[in-house]
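Lab notebook, bench 4. The sequencing result for the construct came back, and we need a structural model before the next group meeting so we can plan mutations. Quick request posted to the team channel:

Model the 3D structure of this chain.
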Amino acid sequence: MTTEGFYLGGEIDAKTGDRTDSLTDYDPGDLTTHGVIVGMTGSGKTGLGIIFLEEALLNGIPTLIIDPKGDMTNLLLTFPDLLPDDFEPWVDDGEARKEGKTRAELATEKAELWSKGLGWWDQDGSRIAKLKEAAGFTVYTPGSSAGAGVNIVGSLTVPTLSWEDDAETIRDEIEGFVSGLLGLIGEDADPISSREHILLSNLIEHSWRQGVDLDLASLLGQVQRPP
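Done. Here's the predicted structure in token form:
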């Protein structure tokens, strides 16, 4: 298999449905700011999206995926050895019961299906191994403990920088935090003229100069009773 850019698959003969020798690739240099994949239900939009993402990762392109539906978490199912034991933890118990099979039997079928499918496109477990080596995956789940949590407020821990040498840097950090916090409640606050922004910024700076860590609860307490 030799392609340039993102390997998307191969062309299919419209009459016979068989593969041709012509491979399909995509020049990543053609990537634009925005794009869209359009198709009817079941036409393979998600599959094509996953292929694009896998190829981007294989080419060293960092990827942030926002997926409310949850399909893209399948990117983590990378099993270079394609063993039934790898698939078994992810087998649907309901599907196994419906087909009158054990989990192990269905896992064996899934492993064979993946091996056959990859082979049809001249791929094998070695390409999966390359993907696994090329990228680390983390699933963030705001509002749920299913994956890694997301702290949308940020850290109010005293920075390790010195006020004598890095006061401007520290104040930039405070400004960014306060602007983000006020933005969460719909306040487009100017750091120079907004009373809310000035108050919060001074409260944080005062605590940090005292070497005191803050969290959101303690910051709100200081808003009510400023030091």
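Strands lie at 6-12, 19-26.
Will bring this to the meeting.
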